[in-house]
Structure formats: structure tokens, C-alpha cells
Amino acid sequence: MPKKKVILKAQIPDNEKTDALMSPCLYINPDVEFKDIPTTGEEYLLKVMKERENYSQVTKCQQDISKFAKNQSCFVAELPRAYVADIFKPTIEWQNIQVADFSDVRMYISRIISKKSQWSNTIRKIEIEQDNLLGWKRFFKMNEPTLSCVLGLPYTLLDRALEILTDIIDDVPPGKTIDYKTGQWIYAFLACTRQPLLSDTTSILRNLARKCAEIRSHINPEQENSREAVAPLNIFICLVSRYFRQYDLAD
């Protein structure tokens, strides 16, 4: 019986021993004859290993790593958590109810979208310049936050709309809360937010939750209707943290 050839050697030659992590664990016996076209898995593996010898051990990344999402920087600085009075902290049971109700809304929207051919002709196509801040504010003021209105916007503008709304609530005076209509708009756009989340979308959602927490921190627990004032803020913080899984922002 002919002696079986040794194709792979696990031992590294003395002159090639190194502590580098890139050191290969298998070497090809120089006596092995390669076929132009592999016919077995073993021959294919040998061909790949042989071709790998023609490339350098370190490959330089050609991508420009300086390009990040437009609302994040190379070194993302996490803002400190805003103070929240114990009386304003929602219970986990309350948060679970909000998430469950929100999930039902999103499922309803998904069913509607799946039947787009039945209602697409009744939706008014809305065109608005992405960076026209006054145009967006006029849009939110002149229109009702209905599902038909939100679905009339192109997908590319959904994130931008939520970003504009987040900037709008930044003007809420200390001690005040989000007005009812703005809260409805925010909820509507959250309900239509696409998943899996893009990096830009995640950044917008996190910014929304932080600003809601900041607004809540300025509300006096002893003022009249303070619990009603923090309710929409708690809802948005809850949805961003619990539903969209930004758990580090959860109460």
C-alpha cells in the first residue's frame, strides 16, 4: 500500500516561529501537487490557502472612517441623566402597559400598510423641503396628526420630521410640558418609525428621550397637575427605552 501523503503540517518551521497572532496554524507541504480546478473540499481548501499567500497579512481599510452619522461625532459624549423626582418615576407595570398599547398601534399600522393598494389613492402626497424649519412648523400647525397625514410623507422624511419635533420641544419653558398637539405628532411618528433602526434614527430617538427627561426635571412636583404634565414625557421616554431598546435611558 502506498504511503499516504501528508498534506498539512501543524508544526511551524523554526525559522518562521513568531509570537504574532496572525501566524498561520497550518502549513502546506511543498510536495503537494495542486490542481487547476479543485474537485474535492480538501483540494478547494488547499487552493484557498495557497492563494492567500499572495496577499499581505495586514489589509488597509480604504473607507473614510471620519464619516459618521450627521448627528453624531467621532467621540460620542453621553450627557448625564437628568434628575427625576421619585414621584414622577413610572412603575414598570405602567411602562409595560404603554409598550403593549404602542405595539398594538404599530401592528395596526403594519396591517394598513400591507393593504396599500386599497387606500393609496386617498392619501394626499405631501411634499416639504427637508431643511425648511418654518415649513415644518407650518405643516405641524396647519395639519392634524392623523395616520393618513403621516403616511402621506415619504419614508425619507419621517426621521427628519421627528428630528424637527425634538428641536421644537427644546423651546419648552422650564416648568412647562409638551403641548397636546405636539405630543400627538411625536407619538404618530414614533408609531411609523421603521425597524431595524438606522444609526441616524437611533440618535434622534435618544435625543428625544433625553430632552423629555430634561423637561421633566424642571417640573415642580408640588405644582398643580404636575402628574398630568409629566405623563407625555414619561410615555416617550418609556417607548424609546423599552420598545426601541435604548435601555440605558429607562426610568
TrEMBL record:
<keyword id="KW-0508">mRNA splicing</keyword>
<comment type="similarity">
    <text>Belongs to the gemin-2 family.</text>
</comment>
<comment type="subunit">
    <text>Part of the core SMN complex.</text>
</comment>
<dbReference type="InterPro" id="IPR017364">
    <property type="entry name" value="GEMIN2"/>
</dbReference>
<comment type="function">
    <text>The SMN complex catalyzes the assembly of small nuclear ribonucleoproteins (snRNPs), the building blocks of the spliceosome, and thereby plays an important role in the splicing of cellular pre-mRNAs.</text>
</comment>
<keyword id="KW-0963">Cytoplasm</keyword>
<dbReference type="GO" id="GO:0000245">
    <property type="term" value="P:spliceosomal complex assembly"/>
</dbReference>
<dbReference type="GO" id="GO:0000387">
    <property type="term" value="P:spliceosomal snRNP assembly"/>
</dbReference>
<dbReference type="InterPro" id="IPR035426">
    <property type="entry name" value="Gemin2/Brr1"/>
</dbReference>
<dbReference type="GO" id="GO:0032797">
    <property type="term" value="C:SMN complex"/>
</dbReference>
<protein>
    <recommendedName>
        <fullName>Gem-associated protein 2</fullName>
    </recommendedName>
</protein>
<keyword id="KW-0507">mRNA processing</keyword>
<dbReference type="GO" id="GO:0005681">
    <property type="term" value="C:spliceosomal complex"/>
</dbReference>
<dbReference type="Pfam" id="PF04938">
    <property type="entry name" value="SIP1"/>
</dbReference>
